[in-house]
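**User:** I keep going back and forth on a fold encoding question. It is easy to fool oneself when nobody else works the same problem. Could you pick a protein and write out its sequence and tokenised fold? Could you put it straight underneath, so I can go through it closely?

**Assistant:**
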Amino acid sequence: MDLKEPTRRRLLWTLGAIGFAVAASSDSVRGAAGTGGRGPAARPTPTPAPSGSRPLRAAGGPHAPGRPPVVTPAVILPGHPAWKPTPAPRRKEAVTNLRELGPGRPPGTISLTIDDGPHPEYTPQILDLLAEHRVTATFFVVGEMVREYPLITRRIVEAGHQICNHTMSHPSPFDRIGSRRIRREIAEAHERIAQATGVTPKFFRAPGGAWSKQVFETTAEFGMIPIGWEVDPQDWRRPGVGRIRRALLESKEGAIMLCHDGGGDRSQTVAALRQVLPRLKKRGLTFVPL
């Protein structure tokens, strides 16, 4: 048949439109067949991860085609608007012996607590010494030092030691700085420690052991137990290695010992601990965190 050019173009256009409609209808049928005829095909449900495992992101990024984005819940730490501390019972005195923290501890235990760090020189030395003698200690850290030396702070926790709150700037006398500053000192250190390590402190020590009703109330408000000491070699005064050693060796079962890794030259403390740790262990005492 001899068709004129305009007629031929209209015929070709009509045939193309018919083919497109047929193809679209076929795709629609296939999609409906996969969903029981109820509409577009649903996305496959991802297989849940085994219990206790970390959620895996889809290949190609968190928004890869065919996979819903994985949302990991944020850890709520001090400083987060949603964080609310669980108050602890308010005490009228600081704990000075492990027996006061409750029953259930093995016999022959003792606790070494270390204040005022982290320090860039002496804290690593003490950590090496503790590792050598397989001793676990409790570090009461100052928030300003945590801010300056976060890597050393994390090393304390990663080595398995306990980390606790010793205020933000170590003001003294602590019990006379006013209720607002007392709360700010405790709150800011709490936040700084938690953000640096992921650990929320459970124990608090007032600088110089300066306690008051306000200090005890704020300590309890933040869910912490106030900690003092039973054995104090006054190593912060640098009285000599021999005097520090003799004082620490007087420690008995259950004692909470006080030493320092910050606030000045602590070489005498390191030297004394090098002698004291093996001798106390040889006596049958076991070092435990609070």
